[in-house]
Design brief:
Radius of gyration: 15 Å
Order of helices and strands: HHHHH
Oligomer: single chain
Number of strands: 0
Strand content: under 5%
Distance between the termini: 36 Å
Number of domains: 1
Helix content: over 70%
Length: 137
């Protein structure tokens, strides 16, 4: 569980660092002083709902009903609700589709909800690094 969390945290951190080196992201600061227990619990609940409900329940039921390929396609489309996040662009919309595919495949291959810990690590890194998301030139 901790390993999946660390991989999720590292994956977004490495991605942001590469984009920073290329000049596509601007860090506001790197700090933990604004990182409250309330914010952390919000991130836990968000990842839990997404992974347990969307992938744990909906994906499994759709897979039984329509087959794996169609189920993953529908979950990819469901993931596009991230379009309502601040500063969303067409690129981030595409990335939401990729995220839905990746997390669905992660669940399909692993046959367990360990993807939740990856997702939690991913969510945890965002306010920890406190960057401006989707700031692409």
């Amino acid at each position: 569980m901790f390993g999946r969390f660390a991989i999720g945290f590292s994956a977004i951190s490495l991605s942001i660092f590469i984009l920073y080196l290329l000049g596509y992201y601007h860090f506001i600061n790197i700090s933990t002083e604004d990182y409250s227990l309330r914010l952390f619990m919000t991130l836990v609940v968000a990842a839990l709902i997404e992974d347990l409900f969307t992938r744990g329940l909906v994906l499994r039921e759709l897979e039984n009903w329509l087959g794996t390929n169609m189920a993953i396609l529908i979950i990819m489309i469901i993931e596009t609700y991230h379009i309502f996040n601040p500063n969303t662009t067409w690129f981030s919309f595409f990335m939401s589709l990729c995220w839905g595919f990746t997390m669905s495949m992660f669940l399909y291959i692993q046959k367990s909800l360990v993807a939740f810990f990856f997702h939690l690590g991913w969510n945890f890194a965002q306010p920890f690094l406190w960057f401006k998301p989707y700031r692409i030139r």
